[in-house]
Amino acid sequence: MKTIHHTILFVKEKLQNAEGGHDWFHVERVYNNALLIAEEESCDLQVIKLAALLHDVADSKFHNGDETIGPKIAREFLVTQNVAEETINHVIAIIENISYKGGNFEKEFHSKELEIVQDADRLDAIGAIGIARTFNYGGFKNRPLYNPTIQPNLNMSKEEYKNSEAPTLNHFYEKLLLLKDKMSTETGKKIAKKRHNFMVSFLSQFYSEWEGLA
Length: 214
Fold this sequence. Notes:
By secondary structure, the protein is mainly α. 58% of the residues lie in helices and 0% in strands. The chain is globular, with a radius of gyration of 17 Å.
């Protein structure tokens, strides 16, 4: 428990000036989601707790696309906590494989713990919180809310996805609405269905208001 406490303090410090959708509160929600999902699964709870807490300690979006910084920071921290090497390697593998990255790539690592933490992270990308985070990040990047002349790109490469400057609403079609069917755990699937339906209702209302119909 001392290791988890130290990890929480470490992550809070690292993310104290983070963008609102990728701050400590995002990590806390993912952590709680992961613990909820883990109740129904046979898994290594220490790995899940550490991976959930450290998964966004240095998101590549805020480090010029460098995907090595987060795992490096996480590993260095875990070594200072005398965490077993096997556990460290598992946590780092989860961090390296958790991101969506456009959805058009094959994961190189598989474990029940990855499925749980990934589902927990994806749950925070959909529903009411997901909508709020999406528009918060769009504002952070100064992107338009919506442009009917720019269609969503559903076949982006990893690099295209990472460098996209499309309107915020396109992100719903390029990622958020796809996540329901990418959940791995039964608990994740159940929660995702409800949050997905909320997003569908939101989009219907958005388009009605855009057209001045409601």
